[in-house]
């Protein structure tokens, strides 16, 4: 069973995720308003109330899904495509930005215990999930710091484990050119990992959407 880091952040806020440069300054200044509008303030309150030190990854996921009242229907035939042993790469669209990851982790860990996700460095705030993630900065694909996590991902698969990726690298958003909400262009990460490991690739499609306010704010950004 995966064990969590016993420490938890003092506060979950968008200000803690700020990138360098002017955008980071912007996030820091407007973080109280953004925390409120994006629901991060509510998540922080729930986190402080319900998450206990020394929780395992599976206990954290179980508690989080229960508290947030997250449920999902899934096609068992998709799970049956995942080999029960050996390396496998799972790729999925990213409609919600985080909640689908919680549900997928819960489902996949019941099927196989050796699962890791390539995840946004922002999720390092949830220290209980550290063992579940290989952290990258998906919004800076040219960042040399991403070389190390990609090498870790390749090594993880070469050792015979499961790797889950969201190749878009960001949440689905409204795209004016096609007048619909969908993932942006998928990054080359899946191809890189496949060429490096020659493992089976299992595609997953997640049918879900965020709120209208979320997409409105995304269009402003």
Account of the protein in words:
The model has no long low-confidence stretch (mean pLDDT 83). The chain starts with 21 loop residues before the first helix and ends with a helix. The chain is built from eight helices and seven strands; from the N terminus they run ααααβαββαβββαβα. The longest helix is centred in the N-terminal third of the chain and has 16 residues, at 22-37. By secondary structure, it is of the alpha/beta class. The strands form two sheets. Strands 3-2-4-1-7 form a five-stranded parallel beta sheet, sandwiched between helices. A two-stranded antiparallel sheet has the order 5-6. It is 38% helix and 13% strand.
Give descriptors for this structure:
about 220 residues, alpha/beta, five-stranded parallel sheet, two-stranded antiparallel sheet, 8 helices, globular
Average pLDDT confidence is: 83
Low-pLDDT residue intervals, each spanning 5 or more residues: none
Radius of gyration: 17 Å
Shape: globular
Strand order of the largest sheet: 3-2-4-1-7
Describe the biggest sheet?
5 strands, parallel
Number of helices: 8
- Approximate helicity band: 25-40%
Map the helices and strands:
Blueprint: H1 22-37, H2 40-50, H3 57-67, H4 76-79, E1 88-92, H5 99-111, E2 115-120, E3 133-136, H6 147-158, E4 162-165, E5 173-175, E6 180-182, H7 189-197, E7 201-204, H8 212-220
Parallel strand pairs: 1-4, 1-7, 2-3, 2-4
Antiparallel strand pairs: 5-6
Helix pairs in contact: 3-5, 6-7
Describe what is shown at a glance.
This protein is α/β, with parallel strands linked by helices and 221 residues long. 38% of the residues lie in helices and 13% in strands.
């Amino acid at each position: 069973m995966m064990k969590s880091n016993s420490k938890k952040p003092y506060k979950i806020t968008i200000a803690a995720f700020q990138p360098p440069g002017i955008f980071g300054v912007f996030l820091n200044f407007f973080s109280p308003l953004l925390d409120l509008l994006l629901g991060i303030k509510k998540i922080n309150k729930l986190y402080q109330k319900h998450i206990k030190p020394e929780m395992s990854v599976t206990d954290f996921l179980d508690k989080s899904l229960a508290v947030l009242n997250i449920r999902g229907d899934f096609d068992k035939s998709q799970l049956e495509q995942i080999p029960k042993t050996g390396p496998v790469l799972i790729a999925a669209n990213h409609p919600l930005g985080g909640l689908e990851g919680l549900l997928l982790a819960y489902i996949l860990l019941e099927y196989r215990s050796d699962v890791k996700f390539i995840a946004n460095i922002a999720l390092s705030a949830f220290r209980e999930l550290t063992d579940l993630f290989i952290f990258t900065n998906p919004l800076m694909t040219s960042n040399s710091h991403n070389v190390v996590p990609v090498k870790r991902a390749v090594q993880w698969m070469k050792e015979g484990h499961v790797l889950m990726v969201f190749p878009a690298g960001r949440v689905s958003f409204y795209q004016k050119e096609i007048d619909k909400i969908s993932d942006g262009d998928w990054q080359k990460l899946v191809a890189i990992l496949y060429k490096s490991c020659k493992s089976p690739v299992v595609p997953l499609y997640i049918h879900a959407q965020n709120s209208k306010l979320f997409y409105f704010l995304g269009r402003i950004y």
